[in-house]
Amino acid sequence: MDNTKLLSLLKTCINSKSLKQGKLIHQKIVSLGLQNNIILCKNLITLYFSCHLFQPAKLVFQTIDNPLDITLWNGLMAAYTKNFIFIETLELFHRLLHFPYLKPDAFTYPSVLKACSGLGRVGYGKMVHTHVIKSGLGMDVVVMSSVVGMYAKCSLFEDAIKLFGEMAERDVVSWNNVISCYYQDGQPEKALELFEEMKVSGFEPNSVTLTTAISSCARLLDLERGKEIHKELVRSGFVLDGFVSSALVDMYGKCGCLEMAKETFGQIQRKNVVSWNSMIAGYSLKGDSESCIELFRRMHEEGITPTLTTLSSILMACSRSVKLRLGKFIHGYIIRNRVEADIFVDSSLTDLYFKCGNIASAENVFQNMPKTNVVSWNVMISGYMKVGSYLEALGIFTNMRKTGVKPDAVTFTSVLPACSQLGVLERGKEIHNFIIESKLESNEVIVGALLDMYAKCGAVDEALHIFNQLPQRDFVSWTSMIAAYGSHGQAFEALDLFEKMQQSDAKPDKVTFLAILSACSHAGLVGEGCYFFNQMITEYGFKPAVEHYSCLIDLLGRVGRLQEAYEILQRTPDIREDVGLLSTLFSACRLHKEVDLGEKIGRLLIEKDPNDPSTYIILSNMYASVKKWDEVRKVRLKIKALGLKKNPGCSWIEVGKRIHPFVVEDKSHPQAVMIYECMSILASHMENYQVFSF
User: Fold this and answer.
1) What is the pTM of this model?
2) Mean per-residue pLDDT, 83-102
3) Cα–Cα distance, 4 to 184 (Å, whole number)
């Protein structure tokens, strides 16, 4: 049997992937002593690689006595890289460099550089780049495109862009590599700019180019630009593959254009998991968990296995829509199918349970997830903050420090508001020191959170120190400082700062006006408060919210202008029956012993919520203040008949960097006996000077 016949049979085996027949031919080749025939060996290697038998392919090469054909080396390296066997590629290249009779050529380097990229071996890649220059291939467009690609995939974006700029000749691959560089480096605007430059230079974008360009539009939420690219593709008759179609679905979904996303998704003939994930992500952003679950069901029917990205997107949709039942369904799927969840799935589950108020389940997920990643701790801190469990949030931060996980900017901006809410200044200062240790004291968001913490903890001087150090002051920092002055009795300083803010580039918003109105309310500055309330409406065009009216009603109530406050409520339909505002005015009536108006408001509040004990208590105290004892007795009997009890109060104190919480009649504290004895002594002293009303 001659060589031609063997080669023909071998090629038939390759096309049909007939391994059994191929092995018989291999035996024949060896028996005929043709194991050094380069052409036959190349085809044997191809056969074994096509059947994913890599070791036999390697042995075919190794048994050649003197492999003097560079195409044989190149073919094996190309086969290795195509199958992601990168280490063997570099080992074979190293052997080639020391082989005395051959030198690498233009077909060798692309495979080797791809292996460097796959392994992240940038040092070896630079050495290969040096070899390319020395071998005189520095002007070869394919080789140099591969070098650019290696630097890009190893995240050396500056080196890739610099080398691209020095290329005398470019091809589509080199353009794709550098456009991808800008996209991966968080510069989607520059990626799109280069995309346009590529077209102007006469190059036809391919699927890779278009996928990156459309993804850049998605990242920028530039719907119009994305639509333009889509229209150009339709006009040119470009056949959309799965990657471009999925990128379009993703872009439309992220830009909130779900109808176009659905239309594009429907046109994909063979939907892969990326296409499904893109469509699910679009619905997830809208919080449409029902549609996400429906797509998940269709995926299952079509035999597409969901990825962790699929599950994470659906869980985020359930979290946004607060659909606990659907979220539990996905959690059940993960458990039943023994899916090994990643940090994103675990974090999405934790967030879902917190959003739905199922704190125990969130804690359970956290207990079972790896705790080496800062993200998992951040999700727990953020979750506790959402449900108002500030002590627990600080506890998680403490445990995080103990386990050796380094907090990041998100950690600090999440935990500082816990100190603000609890008013625990010493703990806040301790976290400030951690921020300095982490060299994050110049982070603008963290500085804003620190300013807010010091302001709300009453450390106005520290807050002002941070405020004065800010390189640029936005409306948030101005508002925080105004609120700090206002809530701690420094109303005139707040007014002065508000005036400076109005002269700066940062313009006040509704929250700023709320802070200045609150400052006026605390100081009883009626004229100024009314002026700013009107200024907010007439000069800035803001419609007052309930909170602004609350400050105004409180301000008028403090100085006894009760009828005026009541008339404001009555002539404003949106707030006429607001329980919070009526309660504020009701408390003012008790303070100023305005029984007639107080009774009228009290009746309104009881109609709205007959089971609120605070209304009856204020009414009783108001009657007691004007010595209407019969009315006091009637109200007390009503409270007793309804079985109402005042909600127990809760307070806390920070001692020695520890927070000690207390609830009414709580005896769980280890030093409870001593605390109650001290309270008894204090109460007996106070009784000599003050008579307590109900």
Assistant:
1) 0.72
2) 93
3) 50
